[in-house]
Design a protein that fits this description.
alpha+beta, globular, Aminopeptidase, N-acetyltransferase 9 isoform X1, binds coenzyme A
Length: 216
């Protein structure tokens, strides 16, 4: 569990962390990933599904910096583990499939976070990558950041996303017709915590390019 004061350093915590799962590998979002990410976000479908505004490349770099530095945010880029294993040491851009984020929504309670996921590459959807990425991020949030409650906001009609969070035990708590959005919650009780850790017991945590750490 975090104590006040630890929180400010929290979100740089993953700056040197690689999480290796079966289908996905999670790596910190660095400036190297920005061009591909920016390319994805030109898609109007993704802008709509993720409720995002289009950004210039420069703004996307500023956003990457903010995701890396801000105390209330934590983000990982999702890599396709199959491609990553097939091309050891080569540029990660070719293996990037999406991202997964945590955002601390309550300044008075650092145990509550909103979780978001995007599998941007259409050919990579529907293969369980989103599910594993969310499970890995939740386990990271619970065990490393001291989170006890997750919230997800999903567009009404986004069946894949709703299905994903519901099968991970999230329950619907609100529907906004104005924003056409559904809010789901999950409180991590002890049995939920055990379940989450069981689902992710295969995940290996490794240092991320220890020798090539980003200067900023
Ligand atoms: C939503 C999203 C994250 C799901 O990730 P994914 O890797 O495609 O999903 P998974 O393969 O892990 O499947 C999750 C569940 O959704 C179901 N699902 C997947 N695609 C579906 C579709 N097109 N329609 C209905 N259900 C679908 C799967 O069947 C699975 O449930 P199951 O295990 O009971 O079969 C991904 O499709 C995506 O990023 N889409 C675009 C952006 C977006 O919508 N982001 C979420 C914003 S809230």
């Amino acid at each position: 569990m975090l104590v006040q004061g630890q929180e400010a350093a929290t979100m740089r915590l993953n700056a040197n962390t690689l999480l290796q799962g079966k289908k996905v590998v999670l790596v910190p979002y660095t400036s190297e990933h920005v061009p591909r990410y920016h390319e994805w976000m030109q898609s109007e479908e993704l802008q709509r599904l993720t409720a995002s505004e289009p950004l210039s490349l420069e703004q996307e770099h500023a956003m990457q910096h903010s995701w890396r530095e801000d105390a209330d945010k934590c983000t990982f880029i999702v890599l396709d583990a199959q491609q990553w294993r097939a091309q050891p040491g080569s540029a990660e851009e070719g293996c990037m499939v999406g991202d997964v984020n945590l955002f601390l929504t309550d300044p008075g309670d650092p145990t509550v976070a909103e979780i978001e996921v995007m599998i941007a590459e259409p050919s990579c959807r529907g293969r369980g990558l989103g599910t594993e990425a969310v499970l890995m991020m939740m386990a990271y949030g619970v065990s490393k950041l001291g989170l006890t409650r997750f919230e997800a906001k999903i567009g009404q009609g986004n069946e894949a996303s709703l299905r994903l969070f519901q099968k991970l035990h999230f329950a619907q708590v609100a529907v906004s017709d104005i924003f056409q959005e559904v809010t789901l919650h999950l409180t991590v009780s002890e049995p939920e915590r055990q379940w989450l850790l069981e689902q992710t017991c295969h995940v290996a945590e490794k240092p991320y390019r220890a020798s090539a750490a980003e200067p900023h």
